[in-house]
Every structure is written in C-alpha cells, then in structure tokens.
Design brief:
four-stranded antiparallel β-sheet, 2 domains, Arc Repressor Mutant, subunit A, 10 helices, Rossmann fold, five-stranded parallel β-sheet, globular
Length: 275
C-alpha cells in the first residue's frame, strides 16, 4: 500500500497478529500500513502522520518505550500499546512514555474495536473522519509532546455540557480546576498535561467528589463507555485503573497515599480526598 493512503500504522507483531489488527482497523474505516518494530519506525510516523498507531511490543523494554516517547514527541497520533505483560508497573511505564491506551495480548478483537472507537470519538469534533490525523497544537515545538496538549486532543469532547456557562464548565477541588470544554487542567494555577484517559478519570472523580467510584466504573471511563450500562471488565483493566491513578497522583503533585487529592475509598475504588 502506498504510504500516502495509510491513516493507521501497525508496528511490530507476528504476521498473523498484525493481520488481525489490520483487519480490525479496516472494519473501523482505517487504511493500515504494517511496519516492522525497529528504531527507525518513527520515520514512518513522521512521514505518514497516521491518526492511529498500534505498537506491538511483546515485552516493552527500554527500546520500545523510547520508541513510544519518540512517537509522542513527533505526533498526536492515537497510540495504543499491546504487550503480553499486564502488571501495573508495566502498564504504568507504557502510559508514562506516552501511550494513550494499553492492551494485554492475546488481544480480543471486540475489545480492540471498543478501545479504538473510544479514542477516536474523543477527537471526532476536530478530526471529522478516520482519514484525518490529529494535528500538533499551534505553536508547539517540533520536539514537544504533541499529545500532551489538552487542546489538541480535547479529551472532554465526550462530556455533555449542554446549557453550561463558562463557570459551570469548571470542576474544582482544592487547588485543582478542570475545564470540561477546553480540556485545561490547572493545579495551583499551573497547567498540567493529561492523557485523555487521565482527564476522563479525573473529571469523573471531580463530579462524584467524596462518592467512591469502583475500579470497574473507572475502567469503563477510561474505555469511553457509559458507567450506567453493563460491560465486562477484566482484572487487567482494573490494573490499568490503578496505574492511571498512580500517574494522576504524580502529575497532580499528590502524596503516594492520595491524602491531598485522590484517595483509595472503602472497597475497591477511588474518590477525592477530604479538604
């Protein structure tokens, strides 16, 4: 396939797996290109500016994580890592490097479709179709993490804000302020950059305040699914919630136990800390 026709890139993976991923992408309207996992894979991302990138790293070691960082610095592509590892530390390393989502192999096609759909819906108001790649925010330096810009991804696109005025679009807790329209997050009047999953989890916790949201609910929030409906959530997804909360606490400047902003609630879940 000609590179100019591709709006999705699949990096790495055995041929059978890569073909499965490619078929799933085609079902969603993408035109995928298959690329070997190697250090210069970033060249393909720069040249093709794909809207979606799937990176298969059986065991995401330093080289794979560095590739994630390079992709994130060069592109606002929706980036999903796939790995046989599922420990919270492994998931956290992937998110910390710049992945938007993390799936454990063997992958389930229906879940992959759901994850891709959740990511692309969040930017539908800006991208318009599967054929358009997210753009680097205006004024961002070439080496800056493009996806770190809340405006570029608008992670609040899926939130219902009908009838809200400017002040009502802000959710606040202590020194945290989150704007549901612009995607801006401030801590002590300083803007911080969150991934779409982190933004949606924080927005949910801010909405529910001291009410505990269990791991299954937060996993659905990360997946972009409504929490009022039933969806199967496995243990690896719950582990991803813990990894997401760990990263949120770090970015918010929270204490390890969440005593400043996000604490573990009774049972298996999280809520905002008392102020």
């Amino acid at each position: 396939m000609n590179g100019s026709e591709s709006n999705a890139v699949i990096i790495g993976g055995a041929l059978e797996l890569a073909q499965l991923l490619a078929d799933t992408c085609r079902e969603l309207g993408f035109h995928p290109a298959l690329v070997a996992l190697q250090p210069d894979s970033i060249t393909v991302i720069r040249e093709q500016a794909p809207r979606l990138t799937l990176l298969v790293a059986d065991e995401p070691g330093p080289a794979a994580l560095q590739l994630v960082r390079s992709i994130r610095a060069a592109s606002a592509t929706h980036l999903i890592m796939l790995s046989v590892l599922s420990e919270p530390a492994d998931v956290l390393h992937g998110f910390d490097a710049g992945a938007d989502d993390f799936l454990t192999l063997p992958v389930r096609p229906l879940e992959l479709r759901a994850r891709i759909g959740a990511l692309t819906r969040r930017s539908a108001g800006h991208a318009g179709s599967a054929g358009q790649a997210p753009t680097r925010p205006s004024g961002a330096a070439e080496g800056a993490p493009a996806a770190a810009s809340a405006a570029a991804r608008n992670p609040s696109a899926g939130l219902d804000m009908t009838g809200q005025d400017d002040e009502e679009r802000w959710l606040r807790h202590g020194s945290i302020a989150l704007n549901q329209r612009s995607g801006m997050v401030l801590v002590d009047q300083r803007e911080i950059r969150l991934s779409p999953a982190e933004f949606n989890v924080l927005a949910t916790l801010l909405q529910f305040k001291r009410r505990v949201r269990n791991l299954s609910d937060l996993a659905l929030v990360m997946r972009g699914k409504p929490t009022g409906e039933w969806y199967e959530v496995d243990e690896s997804e719950k582990a991803r919630v813990d990894a997401c909360i760990f990263e949120l606490r770090r970015k918010l400047g929270d204490t390890p136990d969440g005593s400043r902003y996000i604490e573990r609630g009774p049972g298996a879940g999280y809520r905002l800390s008392a102020q």
